[in-house]
Each structure stands twice: as structure tokens, then as C-alpha cells.
Write a structure and sequence with these properties.
CATH class of the largest domain: Alpha Beta
Structural class: alpha/beta
CATH superfamily of the largest domain: Cobalamin-binding domain
Number of strands: 24
CATH architecture of the largest domain: 3-Layer(aba) Sandwich
Strand content: 5-15%
Shape: globular
Length: 592
């Protein structure tokens, strides 16, 4: 089979290209999709642009699959894929998922649990002491000792578990290129202790004013207050400007060192990353196996920014991409839009122009770049900071320019938007233009809850802000002659939420005639403050106790209350209302 512009995925494809050696083997837990929304594609293309030869090995089943590729000259790079392998495999109820949209044909089980660890073992068995470098979301969020929901236990750093040489966290273009250049100069991973955006193990940790020691693995496994303290300390240091080097003892005499985060790419640098020669589709070898479903939503979508200063407590973005927003230039985005328009499957619709938060295209405020993100102040919570520079005019201009490209019928915004930021924007007409031009029948927003108690623990804006947004949305639809709907994302069983809070939300939904299409139970993934709350029963921000619903029945009750008229939920709703001594809501005029 001809390569067709993709990076080689077999020894034969390498020799067909005239390669008799290659520099890096990049192993991924996803199918090989050469599109900039896939981290494996970005890192491989960045290395290729610097003159390195990279081969891709997708979802290997054993060490033999690696041996067939031959030993890479410099290192093996490993990622579990675009999402944590455990999240890919299991629902919040810990039930095995039947499909995997990142695998050909949607087939489940093609990657192992804790794929990063298993793939590292394959690499050691196949290539001995050839350097192994971890990256991707799974490795990034498990770089420190962390609570694992599926094992219900605190685990050491993934570097300890895997035996890999080092780890790149966050968006790793800068760090991986620096590592590659040093490996080319015959440097060993043990010599690379000063590279931003990396973590490694050592028996001689650094010290000094630039170093912060956080509670050890032994301490956080024996004392939950220490875990809560550790979680907050780590969150506070994930800023490239003011962050410190972090040290955590994993076992006696073995220390994890996290270097300071990499500086976010500047606009010009980000543009170069997105200008690389991606094929923008899955490898042709998957065609006969049903293709890769994950491409469907992103093939005709554009990522225009990185980072998020929203800082929801249940979101891992602050630990991975950081709170500083960087955006691509209009020229870069328009160039990608033209590529999409000229693509073979384009039907006139740009599905999304977004990112972590679609309507962010600038740092939160002018001082963020110079002094870093505030350690003791959220940009939007509990209310927008007085220093917040809320201005969506540049984003609106970008959407308008894409809309004017010949062949584009509609440009939609489907990534999450921060409605509190939108309301704070007094400089542009973005909200009106969004309603008029960029909604595909319904707009998805994430109030998550309406109880002040729960919103406090989530770090989300108050219900009054959401109601103001809903009111303006309705008026703008009327003004533009539209009949578009709001689809609210709601979360049950977040730390702090009890039956009383769930009933409060259920009554609010009934009053406002909202019938949620789906409800998400809180999913305790590594690296978030909310997960620390879930494990410890302590709010890391205040070190005060917080209620956490952990029982399967309690979670099911909260979830059922948000869809009380679903016949399959009736028995649970009745049981929940009786438990909460709200039998008055069972009869006529109640929730059922």
C-alpha cells in the first residue's frame, strides 16, 4: 500500500521511502490519524519539520509489533492517545465501554488499560535501554502521585510505574524538540534535567529558592489532609512565569522532579505547528476496517486557540494546557479553512472554530504574560476579575472572515463557550452575531448545576449569571427571527452535591421546562482539584470538609432526579424523595 503522504507505519513503508534508519518510534493508543487535533500527529510532524525521521506504531499488541519496526536510533515516544486509556475504556460506573471512537471500526479493547505503562514495558522488552519518553494526556495528568478512581487508590508517578526515562507534560512541542536535539548530540536522558515541560526521577533532587517540595507519596497515602494540601500546591505552580520546580519523593531515595512548565507558544510559533503537512485524515489502511469515527467531528473543524483561564475545578486543562491563552493568527486559521473547503468530503459546513474554550482569543489580562496567572484569584470565579480583558471582537472578526470564504455555507461554534465571559464583553457584538450566524439549531452551554453550594465547589458562576445569559439568548433569537435552543450540560454527584442539591436542581429544571438529554455523573479523573475533593472529602482550597457522594445508589439517585419523568428512573426518584423527606414532591404537582 502506498504511503500517500502519511508517516510510515511499517518497516516496509520506511524502506519504500529509502529509510535505512529512523530516529523515533512514536507509539500511540489511538488509531493513526494525521490531523492537528491528535497530539501524536502534532508531535510527529513537529519532529519531522526539524529533520528527524519518525515512524508511527498504532495500538501494538505485544513486543513483537515493536521488533518488526526495528530499533529507533534515538528513542521511543509513547502516548496513550488523545484521552486517558481508562476513561476510553470505562464509564463513570466502571462499566466497560462497548465502543472506542479512536479505534478503527469503533472496536473496543484495542489498547490496554494504563496503555502508557504497558507500551513502555513492550519498548523495554523489544529495545532494551533505548530511551523511552512519555507524553500525552494520560502521562501528563499522572506525572505526580495521584488518586486513581478505577483502583480507588493513590498511585505513584507514572514514571515509577512504567520505568520510562522521562516525561513531557502539557503541550510538548518545545520540550520534545529540545530533547531530540540533545539525543542527537549523544546526550542521555539523565543529563536532561533542565528542560522546561518535563518530569523525571532522580536520587539527587534540586534545592533552593526556585524549588518547592510537596508532600511525599507515603505521606499523601497515609493522610488525606496531606493529599489535599499536595493537590492545591501542585495546581498553584502550573504557570510558566511564576511557577517553581516541584519535587515529590516517590519512595525512599527516589524523587520526582517536575521542571517549570514550558512557555506557551507565541502566535507565530503556533501558526507554524498548524501549517505542517498533515494529511487531515486517518491512515488509508483503516478504510477497510470501517474508518475512525473520531475524525468525523474534527475533519471540518478548526482549533484556533490553546489554554483556558476558566479554571473549573473538575477540569484538567490547568494542569495540561495551562491558564494562559494563545491564539493562532487570522492568516493561519484562514489558510486551514481553505484546505478544508478544498477537501474531498467538504459539504459547505465548518463544524467548529474553537478550542478548550471557543470564545477566548487573548490572555485574561495584560499582566498575565509578565507576572503570571494570579495564585490567589480566579479570572472568572466567583465573578469576573476587574482586570479581566473581556473582548470577543477579534474572534467575531475571524468567524466573519471564514464565513466569507467561497464555498462555505455556514460556520458553527460547537466548542464550549463561557457565557459569563460573553456577558462581561461590553466591547463587541459577538453574542448577537453568534445567535444570528453561528448556531446549528441548538447551543450547548455548561452551567453544570444551579445550587450555590455545588457551584462553589465546582468553581462555576452563579445561577443568576446563567439566567441572565438565557434571557439575553431568548431576546436575541426573537430579534433575529430564530428558533434556536439551549442545551445545558449538567453534572450530578460532584463533591459538595447531596440529595438536597439534586432536588433543588430538579425543581429548577421543572420550573424552567428543561428536560436534559443527558446527565453526566462526576468522573474523578487524575489531576483535578475536584478529584482531590472526591478522594479526601476535603476542599484543597480551604482545607475544610466537603460532602462526597460515593455510594452507587446515592449517585444513581442524584442522576435520576435530573430526569425524573423517565419511566426507568421512577423507583429511584421516589426512593430519593422519601430519603430526603420530600414526599410532597411525589404526588401531583411534584417531580413525577
Amino acid at each position: 500500500m502506498e504511503n500517500n503522504g502519511f508517516l510510515p507505519i511499517s518497516k516496509k513503508e520506511m524502506t519504500d521511502l529509502g529509510w535505512y534508519y529512523y530516529d523515533f518510534l512514536l507509539i500511540t493508543g489511538d488509531a493513526y490519524v494525521d490531523h492537528p487535533s491528535f497530539g501524536a500527529a502534532v508531535i510527529s510532524r513537529v519532529l519531522e519539520s526539524k529533520g528527524f525521521r519518525v515512524a508511527i506504531l498504532s495500538q501494538p499488541q505485544n513486543k513483537v509489533d515493536l521488533e518488526k519496526m526495528g530499533k529507533p536510533r534515538l528513542a521511543t515516544l509513547i502516548t496513550a492517545g488523545n484521552i486517558d486509556s481508562m476513561v476510553a475504556h470505562y464509564s463513570v460506573a466502571k462499566k466497560r465501554r462497548s465502543k472506542d471512537s479512536y479505534t478503527a471500526g469503533g472496536k473496543a479493547g484495542k489498547r490496554p488499560d494504563m496503555a502508557t505503562i504497558v507500551y513502555t514495558q513492550y519498548a523495554r522488552e523489544a529495545f532494551g535501554d533505548n530511551p523511552v519518553i512519555l507524553g500525552g494526556l494520560e502521562a501528563s495528568l499522572r506525572r505526580f502521585a495521584h488518586y486513581d478512581y478505577w483502583k480507588d487508590a493513590v498511585l505513584p508517578s507514572i514514571l515509577v510505574q512504567s520505568g520510562a526515562d522521562m516525561l513531557c507534560f502539557g503541550m510538548s512541542e518545545t520540550s520534545i524538540v529540545e530533547i531530540a536535539n540533545r539525543l542527537k548530540r549523544k546526550k542521555k536522558p539523565s543529563d536532561m534535567t533542565d528542560i522546561r515541560g518535563t518530569a523525571f526521577l532522580t536520587d539527587a533532587p534540586p534545592s533552593g529558592d526556585d524549588v518547592i517540595n510537596v508532600p511525599s507519596f507515603d505521606l499523601i497515602t497515609s493522610e488525606k489532609r496531606q493529599y489535599a494540601k499536595f493537590a492545591n500546591m501542585v495546581q498553584m505552580e502550573q504557570d510558566a512565569v511564576r511557577g517553581h520546580i516541584i519535587v515529590q519523593e516517590q519512595e525512599e531515595g527516589v524523587y520526582l522532579v517536575q521542571q517549570k512548565p514550558s512557555f506557551p507558544l507565541e502566535t507565530e510559533e503556533l501558526d507554524k505547528v498548524y501549517a505542517l503537512p498533515y494529511m487531515r485524515y486517518y491512515h488509508p489502511s483503516y478504510e477497510e476496517r470501517g474508518g475512525v469515527a473520531a475524525i468525523e467531528e474534527v475533519e471540518h473543524s478548526i482549533i484556533h486557540n490553546r489554554g483556558c483561564f476558566g479554571s473549573c475545578n473538575f477540569c484538567a486543562l490547568a494542569m495540561h494546557q495551562g491558564r494562559y491563552v494563545t491564539s493562532r493568527s487570522h492568516e493561519s486559521v484562514l489558510e486551514e479553512a481553505h484546505k478544508i473547503v478544498n477537501g474531498p468530503r467538504f459539504k459547505g459546513y465548518i463544524h467548529d472554530v474553537g478550542g478548550p474554550t471557543a470564545n477566548f482569543r487573548r490572555p485574561a489580562c495584560k499582566k498575565q504574560k509578565k507576572v503570571g496567572t494570579c495564585k490567589d484569584r480566579q479570572c472568572l470565579y466567583p465573578t469576573p476579575c476587574p482586570n479581566l480583558d473581556a473582548d470577543e471582537s477579534d474572534y467575531l472578526k475571524l468567524l466573519t472572515e471564514i464565513r466569507e470564504i467561497k464555498g462555505v455555507k455556514k460556520v458553527f461554534v460547537r466548542s464550549g463557550i463561557r457565557f459569563d465571559y460573553m456577558l462581561a464583553d461590553k466591547k463587541s457584538n459577538f453574542f448577537s452575531e453568534l445567535v444570528k450566524h453561528h448556531i446549528s439549531g441548538q447551543l450547548k452551554v455548561a452551567p453544570e448545576h444551579i445550587s450555590p453550594n455545588v457551584l462553589y465547589y465546582m468553581g462555576k458562576p452563579n445561577v443568576e449569571t446563567y439566567e441572565k445569559f438565557c434571557e439575553q439568548y431568548k431576546k436575541l433569537n426573537e430579534k433575529h427571527g430564530k428558533n434556536q435552543f439551549l442545551v445545558p450540560y449538567l453534572m450530578s454527584s460532584h463533591p459538595g452535591s447531596d440529595l438536597k442539591d439534586a432536588i433543588t436542581l430538579a425543581l429548577y429544571l421543572k420550573k424552567n421546562k428543561v428536560v436534559p438529554e443527558q446527565v453526566q455523573d462526576f468522573y474523578p479523573t487524575p489531576g483535578t482539584l475536584s478529584t482531590a475533593m472526591y478522594y479526601t472529602g476535603i476542599d484543597p482550597r480551604t482545607m475544610k470538609p466537603v460532602f462526597v457522594e460515593k455510594s452507587a445508589e446515592g449517585k444513581a439517585m442524584q442522576r435520576a432526579l435530573l430526569q425524573p419523568r423517565n419511566p426507568k428512573n421512577r423507583a429511584l426518584v421516589v426512593k430519593a424523595l422519601k430519603k430526603a423527606k420530600r414526599e410532597d414532591l411525589i404526588g401531583k404537582g411534584g417531580l413525577l
